[in-house]
Amino acid sequence: MSTIRQLSILLTASALAACNGSSGKNEEVTPPDPDAPTLVAVSVLDENCQAMTSPSLVAGSTFCIEAYLSKNNAAVVNTSVTFETPLGSLSPSSKLTNSDGVAQVLLTSSSSDIGAADVTASSQGASDSASFEFLRDTNQTTTLPVVSLSSFVGDAAINSAKQGEVITLKANLVDKENNPISNQPIRFTAEIGELNTSSWLTDTNGNANVLLTLASDSQIGAATAVATYQLDESNSVSSQINYQVLSADDIETPVVQVGYFDNDGNFVANQLKLSVARQSDGSVDLAAGGTLGLSLVLVDENEQVITTPTAVNFSSNCVLNSKANIDEQVLTINGEANSTYKDISCAGANGNQDQIIASVTVNGSNIILTQDINLLGEALGAIEFVSAEPNSIVLKGTGGVGWQARKFISPTASEF
Question: Positive or negative CA dihedral for 229, 231, 234, 239?
Answer without folding.
Answer: negative
